[in-house]
Amino acid sequence: MAGLLELTTGAVAIMPRAARLTLPGTLATGLEFLHILAAGVDGSLRNWADGKPNGTKVGNPVAGAGFLSLRSGVDYVRSGFLDVAGDRTYLVVGRSSSASTADATRFAFMGSAVGNGGGLNIYTADATTTRLAGTYTNGSPVTAPANLPTPSSFACLIASAAQVGVTASTLDNPTLYNMTAGAQAVGSLNDGYSRVANGQPVCIGSFNGTIIGGTGDESLAICWSRVLTDVERAAAYAWAKALLATKSIVI
Question: Fewer Cβ neighbours under 10 Å: the N or C end of the chain?
């Protein structure tokens, strides 16, 4: 069909002028943004989620071979989606060259924090580990304490967090998955606490502000306003893997 871009786990092509995008299964439900950073600087700003606002360029991201090179707080993409509340799932494909625990060299893969606090965020904890952190109504951030290895080569990270803690369930717990490595880290969310949203844009390759300033490369960034099921998460990973293989990015 003319003007239709279909990206599935089969044949995949990036067509920046296509009219729309088709995702497999139920992955279009609750989709807030989908930015293909492998499509170059200008192409990365397009939001493939139907009816949702495009992103904006901050600073000077640099296009590489299937990715954008970003510096948190300086050169990144700001999505048009505001973190105002609700369940959340992030998917990001990237790698980091951040080198220490100092904020100036930490890389923010994706998040809505102001500076380095608030919101829901994926970032490097130090030279070797990556963390998911969110702020809740108990006044403390909930993190995935068993930090996952920071990918120095491209990997698919998926983070999920429910808006409200669920009694006698761990499905609501903030969880960070490294789909490429087959590993996960789970934070402990006490029953009844709610995630505190700050109303700020979700940024790709940064948070809001300039406190965190590490560097990294990213090829794909997706956000849903719900928690994906295990089956959906696997399908999203397979779809991302097929898409980025067309740009020689192996995840």
Answer: N
